[in-house]
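For the sake of transparency, this paper describes our internal protein records without simplification. Because each token names a local backbone shape, the row as a whole describes the fold. One such record is reproduced below, unchanged from the form in which we store it:
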Amino acid sequence: MYGGFRGGGGGGMGGMQQMLKQAQKMQEQMQAAQEELAESEVEGASGGGMVKITLSGKKELKAVKIDPKCVDADDIEMLEDLIIAAFGDAAQKADKMSEELMGPFGQLGLF
């Protein structure tokens, strides 16, 4: 005689527990992907490999290598341009790696 809402029926709690398990599994997978990304490194280069930049998968600068042949005290601007280009190359590679590792989570707005 109460005629109102009586709850979710027989399987409500079981469905909620299953959803929570799936969410926990996704969180663990996302954390593992983030750790792999942080530990990974990419290298960008410019000037035919005369300037090389190494970044972590999270775009933290790890190393800069400059071939002494491209260092000209009269043309520092060229060296600066090579460094910027090498960084851009490395950043694109880091973005690609991030998309590959974090893709499913990024689509969910989790990363």
Summary: The helical segments are 12-39, 76-107. The mean pLDDT is 83. The radius of gyration is 24 Å.
